[in-house]
Amino acid sequence: MNSVPVEAFVALSFVLFILGALGVLLRKNAILIFMSVELMLNAANLALVAFARQWGDLNGQIFVFFVMTVAAAEVAIGLALIVAIFRNKQSINIDDLHQMEG
Amino acid sequence: MLSYTQLIPLVILIPAIGSFINLFWGAKMGERAAGYVASTAAVLTFIISVLIFNYLNAAHGLAVVIDPPIFDSWIRIGSDHLALEIPWQFRVDSLTAVMLLVVTGVGSLIHIYSIGYIHGDPKATRFFAYLNLFLMFMLVLVTGNNYLMMFVGWEGVGVCSFLLIGYWWDKKGEIGWQNGNAARKAMLLNRVGDFGLLMGVFLIFWTFGTLNYYSPGEEANPPLQLYYNGYGPNPHETHSAEEGDHSGEESTGEEGDTHGEESSDDHGSILTDKALFSRINLPQAGEEGEGAEGEGGHGGLPHPTEAELNNSLFTDYRQLGVFGQAQYLMSLPEGDAGRLIDFGSFQLDIQIVIVMIVLFLLLGATGKSAQIPLFVWLPDAMAGPTPVSALMHAATMVTAGVYLLVRSSVLLELAPEAKFVIAVIGAATALVGGFTALGQWDVKRVLAYSTVSQLGFMVAAVGIGAYVAAIFHLVTHAVFKALLFLGSGSVIHGVEHGHHHVHEHGHHGDAHAGEDHHDDFDPQDMRNMGGLAGKMPITFLTYLMGTFALMGLPFFAGFWSKDEILAHAFHEALFGKSALSVFGGQIVFGLLIVSAGFTAFYMWRQIQMVFFGTPRSEAADHAPESVAWMTVPLIILAIGSIFVGLVNIPGGAIPFTWFLPLHSFGHFLESSIPSVTAHPPLDFNWPLAIGATAIAFGAIFLSHSIYAGNKAVVSRDDHNLGVDPLYKNAATRQAWSFANARVKWDDFYHAIFLRPYERIGQFLADVVDWRFLHDYFHDTVIKKGFDGIASLLSNPIDVGIIDGTVNGVGKVVKFFSGRARGIQTGYVRTYAVALLFGVVAVIVLMLAPLLLNGS
Question: N or C: chain A end with fewer CB closer than 10 Å?
C-alpha cells in the first residue's frame, strides 16, 4: 500500500495551498475568498494526513479533525459577516470595502 | 588782669546766638521781640568793641592774638613736619579795633533802625536773623589772623548779601523775580571776585607755606614796638635822622648800630631793614644772630628788648607769618637762590609772585568792594530793604575789599606795579560811579553809585600807599553813607505811607481806578518826590548833614578824609619815589578831583529833587515823618558824621591843633600797618583844601541853577514822570542819557556774557536737546534700533526659528505619517498580502538556522 511516495502528497498539498493563497489574494468575491481559505485549510489537512500515514502516527489525523472543526466554525462566522456586509453595501466585492483607509 | 581783648570770641558768638534764636524761635516771639534780640546782640558787640578799643589805645596798639583752645586745631592735616595747620585764631590789633567799631557801631544803629523800618513785614524775624548772621560773618572777616578765616567771613557775608538782597523774592509779579535776580547777580559777580581771592590765597600758601598774617608772638612793626617799650628810637625821628646824618644817634647801642649799618643801603624804610631780620637766627656773617638774648652779650646791653625776644623765638624765616616772610624774601639780594619760588615745572622770582598775589587779591576786592569791572551788582542790590543797603552796601560788606588790601599792605608795598593798577582801578571806578550817579532817578541808585564812587576813592588811596587815609575814609564813609541810606529809607517809607494814605481815602474827583496807579507808582523814584523838607524835618536835616559830609564841605567828616586822600595823591604826583608812583598819583589826583565835583553835583541834585520845591505827587504831599525807631539813629549818625572826622586832624589845620591830638587815628593804626611809620603823615595842604572846597561849592551852585525850583519836572514823558533838564538841553542830552543808561555797562556785560550764554543755552536746548537728541537721535538711533532689534528678535528668531522648529517637528511628523498612512489602504487584499509576507518572513526566520546549516 506504500506505493505512492509521500512527496507526491506534500507536492499536492503545496500546490493546493498555493492555489488557495493565490485565490485569497486575487479574488474579489468574498465567498470565493472563503472557498480559497477552505482550500488552504484542506491542503494543510492533506499534508497532515500524508505525514500521519508515513510515520504511522495517528496524531496527525486527530489534528485534522480539529482543523475541520475550526474551519467549519470559521465559515459560519465568516458567512454571517458577509451577510451583514451585504445588508450594508449591497455588494460583496471586497474592493468596495475600503472605508478604513489612511 | 583780664585783658579785654580776650572777649573777642564773644563778638562772634553773640550775633551767632542772636541769629540762632531768631531763626528758631522768631516766629513765636514775634517781630518786636526778634528786633530787640537782634539789636541787643549788636549793641553788646559794640560795647565789647569799645572796651577792646580802649584797651588797645592804652597799650599803644599792641597786637594780641587770641587762640581759643577749642579751635586750636581747626584745620590740622598731616602730622608734625608736613602738617597743614591753620588754627582758628583771632587777631586783635588796631586795624581790627577800628573795623570792629565801625561794623558794630553802625551795625547797632541799623539794627535799631530796622525795628522801625521792617515793621509790618510778615517775616520780619527772618530779616533780623539774617542781619545778625551777617554781623557775625563780617566780624569773622575782620578778626581773623589768617587769610582763611578772612575767606570764611568773606564767603559768609556774600551769602548773607544774597539772602538779604533777595529778601523780598516772593513779592508778586515781576518785582519778586527782579529781586531774586539782583541777589543772584550779586552772588555771581562776587563769585568771580572770590575766584581771584582764592587764587591769591593759594599763591600765598604755596609761596609762604602759611596763611597767617603774623605768627603769634611776631611783631608787626618792631621799631615802633621797641619805642613804646622804652627801647629803641622813635621811628619817626629815626626816619628823618637817617636821611640826614647819624652822629647823634646814641639811644641804645645795638639798635643804633644796626640802624647805622643799614641806612646806607636803602632809603630807611623798615620794610627793607635787614637789621630787623638779623635778630632772627639766619645764617649771616657777623655780629648778632642766634641766642643773643640768653647771653646778653652784644654791646653790653643789659636787657633784651621785647621785639628781639619775640622775633628771636623764630629760628627760621619759614616760621614767620606771610608778611614777615615776604619782607625777608624781598630783602634777599637779586639772584639769590632763596628768592626763587618753585612751581614744579618753572620757577619765579619772589617779586613777580608778590605782584601776582596782589593782583589776585585785587580781583577779590573788585568783586566785594564793587570796583571796575565787577561793580554792576551794587546798584541792583538796592532791591533789598534799605537797612540792608545801608549796612552791607555802604558801611561794612563793601569795605571788606578795602580791608583786605590794607591788611595786605606789606605785600602791596613790595609790589609797586600792582599798586599802580590798584590806584588806576580805584580812580576810574570813582569817576565812573560819580558820572553814572547824576543820571539816575531812583533815590537809592544815586546813593549806590555814590558808594561805588567812594569805594573807588578808598581803593585809589590804597593804590597810592595812603592806607591810613583809606581806612579813615572808610570810617567816615560808613557813618555818612549809612546815614544817607537810612535817610533815604525814611523818605521812601514816608512816600509809601503817603501813597497808601491817598489811596485809602480815595482820590478827590479823580476818575482813575485805584489799582492802575498802584502798580505804576514807584515810591523810590525821585520824580514822585519833592518838598519833603517841610513834611519830614528830621529826615531832611540829618540827610543834609550826611550830604555835606559826603561832598566834603569844610569841617564835616568827609572833608578831612577826602582831603587827606587828595593830599596824598598830590604828594605822590609831585614827590613820588618812582615814575610809576608819580604817574599813579597824577591819575588818582586828576580823576578824584573830578569825581569830587560830580559828587557835589549829584548830591545837590538829589537834595533839590527830594526835599525842596513843591511835591510832585500826591503821595509826597502826604508823607509823614518816620517813627522814632528810625529818626533817632539818623540823629546819632548825623552827629557822628560831623565829629568822626576829628580823629585824624592833620598838622597845620590851625583851629584844631590846640585841643585835639594830631593824626591820632594814624598813630593808632601804626602798629598794624607798618608802612605808616615809613611814610610820615602829611600836613594839611591849605591850597588843595581850598581848591577842592571851591570845586565842591561850584558844583553845588551849578546843580542849584539847573535843578532848583522844580525844574526837574518841566515836561512829562510817557509815564507822566519828569524829564531831567540835562536831557532837555541838547548839549548835554547825550552825556546825560549815557549816565541814565548806567553808562551801558550792564548792557555791555549783557552783550558779552549773557547773550552768548543765552544763545548757547538756546542752541543747546533747541538744537541739541530737542531736535538732535529728542527728535533725531531718539527716533533714528534709539527707536529704530530698538525696533530693528525687536523685529530681528520677533520675526526671524521667534517666528522663524522657534516657531519653525516647533512647526517643523509637526511637519515632519505629518510628512511621515502621511506616508505611513498609505499603508492603511482599506483594501483587505492588501492586508492579506501583508499577512502573507509576514508569515513567509516568520517561517524563513524560524527555519533560517536549519536552512543555513543544511546548505
Answer: N
Q: Which residue of A has its CA nearest to B830?
A: A25
- The answer to whether the Cβ–Cβ distance between B824 and A95 falls below 8 Å is no
Taking an 8 Å cut-off on Cβ atoms, the answer to whether A98 and B829 are in contact is no
Residue A11 in any domain: the answer is yes
Residue B282 in grid coordinates: 639766619
ipTM for the whole complex:
0.85
B709-729 exposure pattern, b = at least 16 Cβ within 10 A, e = fewer: ebbbbeeeeeeebbebbbbee
* Cα distances (angstroms) measured from residue B852 to each of B32, B132, B842, B845, B846: 131, 125, 15, 11, 11
Reported as half-sphere exposure (CB side, CA atoms, 13 A), residue B508 has a value of: 2
In a domain, A14, yes or no: yes
Chain B positions touching A100 (Cβ under 8 A) are 824, 826
Query: Tens digits of per-residue pLDDT, A50-73?
Result: 999 999 999 999 999 999 999 999
For residue B368, give the nearest of B480, B455, B473 by alpha carbon. B455
> What pTM, to 2 d.p., does this model score?
0.74
Report the CATH number that the domain containing residue A80 is assigned in CATH: 1.10.287.3510
Residues of A in contact with B823 (CB under 8 A): 102
pLDDT score for B260: 33
Contact list, B839 vs chain A (CB under 8 Å): none
Write the residue in A26, A95, A101 that is nearest to B824 by C-beta.
A101
Grid cell at residue B648: 585824624
Q: Which three cell numbers stand for residue B242?
A: 637817617
**Whether B826 and A98 lie within 8 Å, measured CB to CB:** yes
Asked if residue A21 belongs to a domain, the reply is: yes
Residue written as grid cell 529833587: B609
Whether residue B824 lies within 8 A of chain A, CB to CB, comes out as yes
Give the pairing type, strands B64-66 and B75-77: unpaired
In chain B, what residues touch A93 (CB-CB under 8 Å)?
none
Indicate yes or no: CB of A94 within 8 angstroms of CB of B821: no
Average pLDDT over residues B459-476: 91
State which residues form the domain around A32: 6-96
Q: Closest by alpha carbon to B482, among B388, B402, B565?
A: B388
> Cα distance from B848 to chain A (closest Cα, Å)?
20
**Cα B523 to Cα B533: distance, rounded to the nearest angstrom:** 17
Count of beta carbons in the 10 Å neighbourhood of residue B87: 20
Total domain count, chain A: 1
How large is the greatest C-alpha to C-alpha distance in chain B, in angstroms?
Answer: 166
Q: Tell me whether residues A102 and B836 touch, CB distance under 8 A.
A: no
| Plot region of B335 (φ>0 → left; ψ -120 to 50 → alpha; else → beta) | left
HSE (side-chain half, CA atoms, 13 Å) at B202? 9
A102 lies in some domain: no
Per the listing, cell 638779623 goes with B278
CA angle, B519 as apex, B513 and B523 as ends, to 5°? Answer: 115
Tens of pLDDT along B337-371?
Answer: 777 888 888 888 888 999 999 999 999 999 888 88
The stretches of B612-713 forming alpha helices (DSSP H) are 618-621, 628-643, 664-669, 675-678, 686-707
**In a 3-state reduction of DSSP, which class is residue B327?**
helix
Strands (DSSP E) along B95-212, which ranges? none
Residues facing residue B77 across a β-bridge: B84
Residue B617's φ and ψ, nearest 5 degrees, are -145, 160
**Lowest mean pLDDT, pick from A19-28, B602-611, B652-661, B692-701:** B652-661
pLDDT tens, residue by residue, B586-634: 899 999 999 999 999 999 989 988 888 877 777 667 778 888 888 888 8
Interface of A with B (CB under 8 A): 21, 24-26, 94-95, 97-102
